[in-house]
Each structure stands twice: as C-alpha cells, then as structure tokens.
Amino acid sequence: MATLVIGHLVEAGLKPILAVDADSNSNLDVALGVTLQATVGSVREEMSERTSKGTLPAGMPKQDLLEMQIEQALVETPDFDLISMGRPEGPGCYCAINNMLRVFLERLNKSYEYVVVDNEAGMEHLSRRTTRGVDIMFIVSDPSQRGLVTAMRIRDLATEMDIAIGHYYLVVSRVRGPLAGPLADTVEGLDIELAGVIPDDPELSRLDEEGRPLLDLGEGSAARVAVNRIMEGVLQGVKG
Q1: Which of 47, 144, 145, 154 has a CA between 20 and 30 Å from the CA of residue 101?
Q2: 128 - beta bridge partners?
Q3: Cβ pair 39, 84 in contact under 8 A
Q4: What domains sit in the chain, N to C, each tagged with a CATH number?
C-alpha cells in the first residue's frame, strides 16, 4: 500500500515526500522503480565494525561521518526521496549508533512535508523510537479473521508505545468482492475506523511478474482507484 500512497501524494502535487522502507522484506525501492546504493542498516554495520577496529577517520566526529554516509544512501528523485532501513541489527551493541541515527533521522524528517513509512508488522523501528510521532497509521490486513486479529494486536502495541499517533485506520486489502458475512461483522465490531477496502487487483500481480514498478499501475487500476479514494478521505479528515 505504501507505494500507492506515495503515488497518490505525487499525483496530487503534495511534496516534498520522504519514503522510508522500514520493512526488510518489502523491497520498496523495487516497487518505486529506484535503485538503492546502501541502507541505514549497512551504514550502521560499517560504523560498528570500523569503530571496533579503530579505523574511523581521525579528527572527524562520528555523528558527522554517520550523517554523511546516510546522506549518500538517500535516493533522490524529482518526485520523492527514499531511504531504506535495511536488515535488522547483527550481534553487538548498537546503542550509541542508534542514538546518533535517531538524531539524524528526526532532523531529516523535518525537511519533508510528507513522510511515508512502510513498516513491518513487528514495528521494530517504531519500538526502537526511530520515529517519534505519526499523524496517520494505516494498519493493513488481508481479508481473514486471523489477519484482523493481527491488525488489532498491532494497534494495541502501537498504543502502548510512547509515540504520538494522531489517527489509526484499518485497511483491508486483496478483497474479492464486497466485505460480507462474518468478516464484515468482525470489521464493524472493531474499535478502529475502516478507511477502506483495496480489491484484489490482477494488474498488481502482472507488474510483479514483469518486474515493473507498481507506480506503473494504470489510472483505471482497481487498487490505485481504491487507495486514491482512501487517501482523499483520510487527508480531508485530518485537515478538517
């Protein structure tokens, strides 16, 4: 969904946009059609290794070196910028590096009007406070009872964190036909607002098979139309 959210913002002229790939399995760069040279994770590993070996440049503060390397990992395009958090931490202590990362990422976020974070279900980067505040959180579920249970657990986990989240929304994705029966009853009974439903769209599968960016979805794509409708409603509600 993150790719289509970014596509909507670009199409609506809502910039500048920072896309953050915080899911090590999502490959947001591929979906957006850009190429990564490095990730925050690879920079962190390199910094940790060079610190332990004593091979950091003399006379250069670690914070400055870290920021320089992350800036080189930032992918810049005319429509959006992308940074990838990369793989989870390896063995060793990363507390000092994570604190430096947090300082830089908070400053980086302030340079953008819109920051879209594609986060994994475990919300590692939220739990580690690499993001401090969220205006809108979309919790995406597949059309199953188990998926909805997981969605609510994610919502509960988010509320337990010391993070300001303005609005929670549920999105049910890959739906074939209208929500009906027990599934619709469950959604209606949940303590979270349903922002919308994204239909199962064969166009998405076709682009994946062809290795093309999801931003290439046609204007009539069912998934693209659904996400545009969701975003229009949510942004109007936030601004209102």
Answers
A1: 154
A2: none
A3: yes
A4: 1-6+15-126 (no CATH), 132-240 (3.40.50.300)
